[in-house]
Amino acid sequence: MKATVEKLDKHQVLLEVEVEAPRVQKALDQAYRRLVKQVNIPGFRKGRAPRFILERYIGKEPIYNEAAEIVIPPAYEEAVAEHKLEPIDRPEVEIVKVEEGEPLIFKARVEVKPEVHLGTYKDLEVERPEVRVTEEDIDAYLKNLQERNATIKVIEDEPAAAGDIVSIDFKGTVDGEPFPGLEGNNYPLELGSGTFVPGFEEQLVGARVNEERTVKVTFPADYYQKGLAGKEAIFQVTLRGIKRKELAPLDDEFAKDVSECETLAELRQDIHRRLEEKRRQEIEAAVRRAVVAKAVAAATVDLPEVMVKRRIETRIRELERNLQLRKITLEEFLNATGKNMDELEQDFRPEAEKDVKTELVLEAIARVENIEATEEELRDEIEKMARLTRQDPAELRQNLDYLSVLKYDIMIKKTIDFLVEHSVAVPPREGGDGETGESRETGETAATEG
């Protein structure tokens, strides 16, 4: 087999492949045996008509086409491997020549991964804060333990206070008209949790069971629902019930109830150890994010649109799955946010482009540094997954898609390990938040959780 490659533009190449005549002849024979079993020819039992009779009956073209379908896919894969191409989409195939006793020639136009121009990716300076746990951190953890193990008391004759869990019926209007999503019945709300739009919960403090209140709030100017951003809303709220948490005292008995520790002092030590380990993991994760971000920022690559669109589609599917858990359709989400699909795709584009560039840069570094999954690493990961899923490791290994993904994941992890190992740790900037130069992830607070 002969194969030549011509670069058409920054993302497309044209492969011209010539498959040798004996291989083509073998495919033609195979094509005849397939087709003769599918055609009823008068005077012959099905599958027994000679080839020249079949050709008279259906013509040569169907046989040639069938032979091409047999030959072209493996020949294309061989040509791709020979020229070390990385296709990112299905090829457009054109058959140039297919004849009896002659080589088969075809052309394949295909988009491939772009060239990545790496910048500096070794000796990158990354902030690495000290692992530190304060007494205040331990106190906050204990407070959370108290909250989680609190007993709940129903309040009937006292007004609602901050921290109480109230059950409310509410209906909101904007510009005097009802607005979709701004209503609910027997909705549980912890006052002071920040679940509702700012100013809502504070106006319910002091209300009693079955009391009705008018609550006025203004949605933030940058609120995610365009129809509500910057708008004043008026809610008619009826408080249906009040529940109050009663916290157990922090003593040795509490320590025994919530842990395997015998004393509060032992529990505080255990919490210190847990928080220290958690903080260490957070710092390591932040260092990995930071060093990857710097390596990616230093590289240049022209992103193929097909890869970006595919990543956008993946993010939209993830959004749909998350919405389904909340029993919301994508259409309902779009209506609530005042967006169409084109606008949603544009919202996802910056992160999708970042994802694709990161993937391409890490792959390029792995190639340059000869980083790949070893057989031992593959075996260890397969055995680990087999234990978790209670499957036979041999069965997992036979799943070629799983094996390919696993190899890739190991390679990417090892590449990030390499970047971290070759980075330079520096102390956090004065006044920094200890997040290695990266901001913490933040989430938007919805008007309601419904």
Can you write the helix and strand succession as a string? EEHHHEEEHEEEEEHHHHHHHHE
In CATH, the topology of the largest domain is named Trigger factor, domain 2
CATH hierarchy class name of the largest domain? Mainly Alpha
Helix content: 40-55%
Number of domains: 3
User: What's the architecture of the largest domain in CATH terms?
Assistant: Orthogonal Bundle
End-to-end Cα distance, whole Å, is 62 Å
CATH superfamily of the largest domain: Trigger factor, C-terminal domain
Key features?
450 residues, alpha+beta, Alpha-Beta Plaits, Chitinase A, domain 3, Trigger factor, domain 2, 3 domains, 11 strands, disordered C terminus, isomerase
Structure description:
The protein has 450 residues and is of the alpha+beta class. It folds into three domains: 2-113, 2-Layer Sandwich (Alpha-Beta Plaits), CATH 3.30.70.1050; 151-246, Chitinase A, domain 3 (Roll); 263-426, Trigger factor, C-terminal domain (Trigger factor, domain 2), CATH 1.10.3120. It is built from twelve helices and eleven strands.
SSE layout:
Elements (H helix, E strand, L loop, with lengths): L1 E6 L4 E8 L1 H16 L14 H8 L2 H22 L9 E6 L6 E8 L13 E3 L7 H14 L2 E5 L9 E10 L2 E14 L21 E7 L13 E15 L5 H7 L5 H35 L6 H21 L4 H8 L3 H28 L6 H15 L3 H6 L1 H22 L2 E3 L24
Parallel strand pairs: 5-11
Antiparallel strand pairs: 1-2, 2-4, 3-4, 6-10, 7-8, 7-10, 9-10
Helix pairs in contact: 1-3, 4-6, 5-6, 6-9, 6-12, 7-9, 9-12, 10-12
Subcellular location: Cytoplasm
Main location: cytoplasm
Keywords: Cell cycle, Cell division, Chaperone, Coiled coil, Cytoplasm, Isomerase, Rotamase
